[in-house]
Design brief:
With 222 residues, this protein is mostly beta strands. The chain has a single domain, classed as Jelly Rolls. Helices cover 7% and strands 36% of the residues. It is built from two helices and 17 strands. The strands form six sheets. It has a six-stranded antiparallel β-sheet, with no helix packed on it. A three-stranded antiparallel β-sheet has the order 11-10-13, with no helix packed on it. The chain is globular and about 55 Å long. The structure holds 5-phospho-D-arabinohydroxamic acid and zinc ion. Zinc ion (ZN) binds next to loops. The site of 5-phospho-D-arabinohydroxamic acid has 14 residues, from strand 5, strand 13 and strand 14.
């Protein structure tokens, strides 16, 4: 089995991902009036969408456990798309509620399923996720070291309390699509997860997904 599997872009929505940027993209004018967007559940397309961002393997290479598989794949010239995010046009400032969809390809790096980078919010605040399509797991870990996980599937909403880092994992064979909404002034802290990681990862096991700590070198998951 190849270390990486890629999803056809046609199943990831219509984003022009080659032009996509995150966080410094052009913003729509401040919406001072109510507005509505249309969600396409199977792809995560948001119409109209404001900013779009993409994460490829090279954007998050250090986060996967199997660094040999990462190096092998990037060295061969492949750089698989892991996920795409599409924001509604809400300015990221206190008082507003930001919301966006994420569409994650199915696949794995070695035996570790594709996942988001994962983050804390700079200003501790809660967040709600709603599963729209596909099958996934959210792993969450508090600043105090408590760990929890929940299945994220269509029609399931998961609440992330303040002070809990969160990461989403696609455990299925189709794109995982979900909506998230959060305090727009919260900010995203990726650095602490890059440094310390989560205490448990999500692996493709013989009889389904396994949420567990990495095994010692040489064991499964390496
Ligand atoms: C989500 C995430 C999104 C991408 O909207 O930002 O799924 O994951 P990363 O931000 O970890 O790359 C969210 O939790 N926003 O706060
Ligand atoms: Zn978040």
């Amino acid at each position: 089995m190849p270390a990486f599997e890629t999803a056809p872009l046609s199943r990831m929505g219509d984003a022009k991902i080659s032009d996509a940027i995150r966080d410094n993209g052009p913003s729509s004018p401040t919406p001072e009036r109510p507005f509505a967007v249309t969600l396409d559940f199977p792809s995560g397309s948001l119409t109209p969408s404001n900013r779009i961002f993409v994460r490829k393997l090279s954007d998050m290479a250090r986060l996967f456990e199997d660094q040999e598989a990462v190096t092998r794949t990037l060295g061969s010239g492949e750089d698989p798309l892991i996920y795409v995010g599409r924001y509604a046009a809400v300015p990221e400032r206190p008082g507003n509620l930001a919301f966006l969809t994420t569409t994650m390809a199915p696949g794995a790096v070695g035996s570790e399923f594709y996942m988001t980078k994962g983050h804390h919010h700079v200003q501790d605040s809660g967040e709600v996720y709603l599963g729209l399509s596909g099958e996934g797991i959210m792993v969450m870990e508090s600043r105090e070291g408590d760990f929890a996980y929940e299945a994220l599937t269509p029609s399931v909403a998961v609440y992330v309390p303040p002070r809990w880092a969160h990461r989403t994992v696609n455990t299925g064979t189709e794109p995982l699509v979900f909506l998230a909404t959060y305090f727009a002034g919260a900010g995203h802290d990726y650095g602490s997860i890059e440094r310390t990681g989560f205490s448990r990862r999500v692996y493709r096991g013989a009889s389904g997904p396994e949420v567990r700590p990495p095994l010692p070198a040489g064991g499964a998951g390496q």
